[in-house]
Every structure is written in C-alpha cells, then in structure tokens.
UniProtKB/TrEMBL annotation:
Residues 128-180 form the RNA polymerase sigma factor 70 region 4 type domain. The keyword Transcription applies. Keywords: DNA-binding, Sigma factor, Transcription, Transcription regulation. It holds the Pfam family Sigma70_r4_2. Coiled coil: none annotated. GO terms for biological process: DNA-templated transcription initiation. The lineage of its organism: Bacteria, Pseudomonadati, Pseudomonadota, Alphaproteobacteria, Sphingomonadales. GO terms for molecular function: DNA binding; sigma factor activity. Residues 34-98 form the RNA polymerase sigma-70 region domain. The keyword Cell cycle does not apply. This is RNA polymerase sigma subunit ECF family protein. Belongs to the sigma-70 factor family. ECF subfamily.
Length: 192
C-alpha cells in the first residue's frame, strides 16, 4: 500500500510533484495527473484517431507513470517529455493490440457513436479528408506528424518519444508528408 506524504514540502510544478510521487505521495500523484492529462489526451487522440482509445491509452500511461516513478531522472528529462514518451508508447501498444473489426461490428459501433448532424456540419470537408488520410499512415509516422504539427514538439522531443534519432524523425516526417500528399490528392480526385 502506498504511503501519503502529507507533511513534506513540495513544489506544485511537475518536477516537484514528481519528486513527491517518487516518495509515495498519492496527493501529488493526483495533482500531477490533473496537470498531465489534458496534453496527454491531445497527443493520444492525434496518434490513435479515437478519443475513447486515447483515454484508455492515457490511463495505461498513468499507471505506468506511477509504477515507474522511481526510474524518472530529473537531470535527463522534464516530467512532461518523459510522460509524453510513455503516452506515445502506450498508444503504439494499443494500436498493435487492436484487432481488426468486422464490417458489421464497425457499422454498429459507428451508428451508436455517431455524432449529431450539427456536429458533422461544423467539421470541414478538408479536416475529414486529412483525418482519413492520417488514419492510413503507419503508427510511427502518424505519431511523428501529430507531435510535430499538432503539439509543436521539436525533432529532439519527437526522437525521445519514439526512442530514435532526430535524423530518423526527419525521415518519418518526410515519408508521412509524401504519403499524406498522395492520399489527399487521391481523395480530392474522388470528390471531383
């Protein structure tokens, strides 16, 4: 059972909270979770393309954060960067574990989760085409694109999240942009 460290002084910044979490402070963990959850959901949704799957991936990442808190080294990374890597890995694991859905199941699932018509009307055709094209990218390319364009992450941050080099990230981004351009051209031709 975890011990709550109520008497110790702690900073409410992520780094200070992480030190408290490493000492078993459950209150610090709850506060850190609130700080990290929103950005993590944003990244996970962009990587997985589905809010529900993103929430599951972030939950798995938070469990891993708690379990691996002792391995965090403040001298090597910021808490946010370290946790982003955990989230990306959880998303990649989630993507790998998802079984292909049979067409009838997919239709039933989409019908029950269908947004209302007003929401659909607000979404531009361009956004839908981009989302559809992104869904066809391999997971690492989609993650690199989501982190670079969606989150404004640097090449070094993306490399750390994907456990690769900045040069490899450049290659992932180049291939992803080329694939997206081709898919978007194809979709535009279909619309004509």
């Amino acid at each position: 059972m975890l011990q709550v460290n109520r008497g110790a002084e702690r900073s409410d910044e992520p780094g200070g909270l992480m030190v408290a979490v490493q000492n078993g402070d459950e209150d610090a963990f709850r506060l850190l979770t609130r700080r990290l959850y929103g950005p993590a959901i944003g990244v996970a949704t962009k990587v997985l393309g589905d809010r529900s799957e993103a929430e599951d991936a972030v939950q798995a990442a938070l469990v891993k954060l708690w379990r691996q808190a002792a391995s965090f080294d403040a001298g090597k990374a910021k808490v946010e960067t370290w946790f982003r890597r955990i989230v990306v890995n959880a998303c990649i694991d989630r993507k790998r574990s998802l079984k292909p859905v049979q067409p009838l199941e997919l239709v039933a699932e989409r019908a029950s989760d269908a947004p209302d018509p007003e929401e659909l009307a607000g979404q531009s055709a361009r956004s839908r085409r981009i989302s559809e094209a992104m869904g066809h990218l391999p997971a690492r390319q989609r993650t690199a694109i989501a982190l670079f364009y969606g989150e404004g992450a640097t090449m070094n941050e993306i490399a750390e999240a994907l456990e690769t080099t900045p040069k490899a990230v450049e290659g992932l981004l180049a291939r992803a942009r080329a694939e997206l351009a081709e898919r978007l051209r194809s979709l535009a031709d279909e619309v004509k």
